[in-house]
Write a structure and sequence with these properties.
Length: 305
């Protein structure tokens, strides 16, 4: 092991210890729900009333035996679909964490269609391929720079199977895009300092090109600090995690700290609107936090006349 690898491993172990301590601060067992009603004139009529839940940053957090608290909360929200914006794991996908996450994914899939992206924690893990294999085999649809088209008939959401040369139909389909930056593989740190900006823009541009302009598009992308890029690429509705609500609330409403945004981060929770883009950042379910309750997001889509 070279010196760099060794330092990285020590750093990861240190982070893991801090995360485990901060995960057990008061309030962290109480899951709350934030509800969003999103209206759009581009919504196909079939999708009027469409409800889905967004999960973020579980980080292998165990709420209770069998994750029943989390599952029963989700059930009460009556979603038709589950979306996740990444960071299921802490630092690696192995041992008790692997068992917990594998069981959780199976339980979710038994009740709902389940689409997800990878976060930076999966991206840099040595066990990333095990995670992808387990989740894909279980039936989780992992979107990596990929778009699927959804239809909804009689309240049942399905993935449209397009024939070769068949274009997706904006009058009855929604686009669901999952972004996973190629730079995320083994990458540690901030995009701002990485020089990857143009590479990422070109990569995402390529993904966005496939989606018809007049089709409503839901985008899953782990990192909220890329809000400007999402605007530049004219994304409609983006869901992110990663910030854990900014670790803790400060007097006056600001948040303390978020990965890749530093001190007093601006993009940590709730909706952010600019130009045509709405970005909703989840405070997430696990990981380090002080007094910021785990959050589930419920979205209801409404057709605007
Ligand atoms: Fe993250």
């Amino acid at each position: 092991m070279n010196h760099m690898n060794f330092s990285m491993k020590v750093f990861r172990i240190f982070l893991n210890i801090i995360e485990r301590i901060l995960e057990h601060t008061p309030g962290n067992g109480n899951i709350r729900t934030t509800r969003y009603r999103i209206e759009s004139r581009f919504l196909p009529p079939d999708f009027d009333g469409f409800r889905f839940v967004v999960l973020a940053d579980i980080h292998a957090h165990r709420f209770d035996e069998g994750q029943e608290m989390l599952l029963s909360k989700i059930r009460r929200l009556e979603p038709e679909l589950i979306l996740s914006v990444g960071d299921f794991i802490r630092e690696e996908y192995e041992g008790a964490d692997r068992k917990l996450l594998r069981e959780l994914s199976q339980k979710l899939l038994a009740e709902w269609p389940f689409y997800s992206i990878l976060g930076n924690h999966e991206g840099r893990a040595d066990t990333k391929e095990d995670f992808i294999e387990d989740f894909s085999k279980a039936g989780v649809r992992l979107l990596q720079d990929e778009t699927v088209y959804l239809t909804r008939e009689n309240g049942e959401v399905k993935e449209a199977l397009l024939k070769e040369n068949e274009s997706p139909d904006p009058s009855r389909m929604l686009a669901l895009t999952g972004l996973y930056p190629s730079y995320e593989n083994g990458f540690y740190g901030s995009l701002r300092d990485s020089g990857y900006g143009p590479v990422l823009k070109a990569e995402y541009e390529q993904v966005m090109k496939a989606v018809p302009e007049d089709m409503l598009q839901i985008v899953l992308s782990h990192r909220p600090e890329l809000f400007e890029l999402y605007q530049e690429l004219k994304m409609d509705l983006v869901f992110c995690g990663h910030a854990h609500g900014g670790l803790m609330k400060l007097p006056g409403g600001r948040r303390l700290l978020a990965p890749d945004q530093g001190l007093l981060p601006k993009l940590t929770h709730g909706p952010y609107h600019k130009n045509i883009t709405t970005m909703i950042v989840s405070e997430g379910l696990g990981g380090p936090r002080i007094g910021i309750f785990p959050e589930l997001i419920l979205v209801e889509m409404k057709k605007r006349g």
